[in-house]
Amino acid sequence: MLDLDRLIHEPGRLAILTVLSSVADADFLFLQRATGLTKGNLSSHLSKLEEAGLVEITKRFVRKKPNTSVAITELGRERTARHWEQLEELKASAQAVSRSQASQSARRSASPSLVRPV
Q: Can you give the residue range of the structural domain that contains 31?
């Protein structure tokens, strides 16, 4: 049984970390559009990720408007990569079981019947 990282496995947080894994940093509105999360939901997830040390949040003003920039930390990058690896392992395991069951089913249907008609 895999021990999935519950903090990362939550779909909203996994989406955030996946987006951040492919960019140097992203502003709040970009993350909101990319993930489809509401402002409140995104903010809540970012707070949890920041508390765990998986993202770094920088707040500043750009042309007198507040701007929040988010970057994934090295720890966040490592834990996200490990999470995706675990999901791939789970997928491979499930496919192997499925192939094994299909093979057993094919052998059963190909073997001669032990019951003879009367």
A: 6-97
73 domain-assigned: yes
> Does 70 fall in a domain?
yes
pTM of the model: 0.81
Terminal alpha carbon distance of the chain: 49
Instruction: Give 16-64 pLDDT, tens digit per residue.
Output: 999 999 999 999 999 999 999 999 999 999 999 999 999 999 999 999 9
Q: How far apart are CA 34 and CA 2, in angstroms?
A: 28
CA distances from 56 to 24, 27, 39, 70, 75 (A): 11, 12, 18, 6, 11
Contacts of 35 (CB under 8 A, 6+ apart): 12, 15, 16, 19, 42
Helix (H, G, I), strand (E, B), or coil: what is residue 114?
A: coil
Q: Count of domains in the chain?
A: 1
